[in-house]
UniProtKB/TrEMBL annotation:
It comes from Intestinimonas massiliensis (ex Afouda et al. 2020). Belongs to the acetyl-CoA hydrolase/transferase family. Residues 19-179 form the Acetyl-CoA hydrolase/transferase N-terminal domain. Residues 271-422 form the Acetyl-CoA hydrolase/transferase C-terminal domain. This is 4-hydroxybutyrate CoA-transferase. The lineage of its organism: Bacteria, Bacillati, Bacillota, Clostridia, Eubacteriales. It comes from the Bacteria. PANTHER family: ACETYL-COA HYDROLASE (PTHR21432:SF20), ACETYL-COA HYDROLASE-RELATED (PTHR21432). Gene3D superfamilies: 4-hydroxybutyrate coenzyme like domains, Acetyl-CoA hydrolase/transferase C-terminal domain, Glutaconate Coenzyme A-transferase. Keywords: Transferase. The keyword Kinase does not apply.
Length: 431
């Protein structure tokens, strides 16, 4: 059948498409800013028709209305990463959290978590009947491949990010044309603390390095201090607007990358329309599945891979908690460990945990022991550098005693005496 004929025959409304979802189905939703909000709104409006529909995704950037208490019998959220709109549902028992390294999620869709329905957003098809998944390829592409039913919102405002982001029209079972602005992630506010952290991190980045950056004020602050660097590259699970500025300034060229030279390689994107316009039909930008981008064995093929992530707490042994406060799940592991281990195996690679030394000046983030119940995200065996606004602590290859001293030196001055007392008690020596 001609793809254009197939397309026309499978056109429907969002209201009609979501009626094909059945009670008990597992519905995998496209990630982050690739979330098909129009389809989710129609699904929630049809809530009375469902019981125990499982909604699976990572970062939810939309309203997350299916997590509201009134829909507890209709929907149950299963999160790989907990966000603002989904956190209460997990904490209050109306949802679940599934721990997973980011790069392993696609494999779970063909093993432990078979997919009934994939709800995604795509570009209009090209002349060959191919659509791009745009800003969300990560696990979204595999969800399309594995799902029994694929519901796609076709949105002309989605940027084209081929060739590894493509799905054929005949892979889409329900096609819903609906144009709307993509969800945008506003640039974070960068204060003096973040600037100090950014400057320390930038000191560990050599010319020609390939960068992985997380989300938030600290990664964006790092970018502020890279303007004097040369020929940086990007191999990262995501990037945002700050990378666009450095690319346009000629700082990021990808010229010295040892894997995929000349290319920005990412799994998903979060930012403003400026970012989306930059990547649209840009041959130098490749969005690829996360089981490629975040695979530590692939990451390690980039020489001088510098991984920069943030965290909640670091204890004096170098254990890192990045996803919980005590037992309360507040986010997820994401790609942190994928890149920490990939950087460790990279020739010249470095991984950095960057964080403010305190929570609003009141609680130290460098602690004798992680909070009771906290999950260890990055182990003490994996940790490399820890950075606060007070400096850099190099932990790789250091003894527990040396680690503790290095961490105390970059703790907030108000908390150093207490940490020194713990040091002397634990190691039976004067600080």
């Amino acid at each position: 059948m001609n793809w254009k004929t197939y397309y026309q025959e499978h056109l429907t409304t969002a209201e009609g498409a979501v009626k094909k979802i059945k009670s008990g189905d597992r519905v995998v939703v496209a990630h982050a800013c690739g979330e098909p909000s129009h389809l989710l709104e129609a699904m929630v409006a049809n809530a009375d028709a469902y019981r125990n529909v499982e909604i699976v995704h990572m970062v939810a950037m939309g309203k997350g209305e299916y997590c509201k208490p009134e829909y507890a019998d209709n929907f149950r959220h299963n999160a790989f990463f907990v966000g603002g709109s989904t956190r209460d549902a997990i904490a209050e028992g109306r949802g679940d959290f599934t721990p997973s390294f980011f790069f392993e999620i696609p494999r779970q869709f063909s093993t432990t978590m078979p997919v009934d329905v994939a709800m995604v957003m795509v570009t209009p098809p090209d002349e060959n009947g191919m659509c791009s998944l745009g800003v969300s390829v990560d696990y979204t592409l595999e969800a399309v491949k594995q799902a029994k039913l694929v519901i796609a919102q076709v949105n002309p405002q989605m940027p084209w990010t081929g060739p590894h982001s493509l799905v054929s029209v005949d892979e889409l079972d329900c096609i819903v044309e609906y144009e709307a602005p993509l969800i945008e992630l506003a640039p974070p506010k960068i204060g003096e603390v973040e600037k100090a952290i950014g400057e320390h991190c930038a000191s560990l980045v050599p010319d020609g390095a390939t960068l992985q950056l997380g989300i938030g004020a600290i990664p964006d602050a790092v970018l502020l201090f890279l303007k004097g660097k040369k020929d940086l590259g990007i191999h990262s699970e995501m990037f945002s607007d700050g990378v666009v500025e450095l690319a346009e300034a000629g700082v990021i060229t990808n010229a010295q990358k040892t894997l995929n030279p000349g290319k920005f390689v990412v799994a998903f994107l979060m930012g403003t329309r400026r970012l989306y316009d930059f990547v649209d039909h840009n041959p130098d930008v490749e969005l690829r599945p996360v089981d490629y981008v975040n695979n530590p064995f692939i990451i390690a093929q980039n020489d001088n891979l510098i991984s920069i992530n943030s965290c909640v707490q670091v204890d004096l042994m170098g254990q890192v908690a990045s996803e919980t406060i005590g037992p309360r799940q507040i986010s997820g592991v994401g790609g942190q460990v994928d890149f920490v281990r990939g950087a460790s195996a990279s020739k010249g690679g470095v991984s950095i945990m960057a964080m403010p030394s305190t929570v609003k000046g009141k609680v130290s983030k460098i602690v004798p022991l992680l909070d009771e119940g906290a999950a260890v995200t990055t182990s003490r065996n994996d940790i490399d550098y820890v950075v606060t606004e007070y400096g850099v602590a190099a932990l790789k290859g250091r003894t527990l005693r040396q680690r503790a001293r290095a961490l105390i030196e970059i703790a907030h001055p108000d908390f150093r005496d207490g940490l020194k007392a713990e040091y002397e008690k634990r190691f039976h020596c004067k600080y």
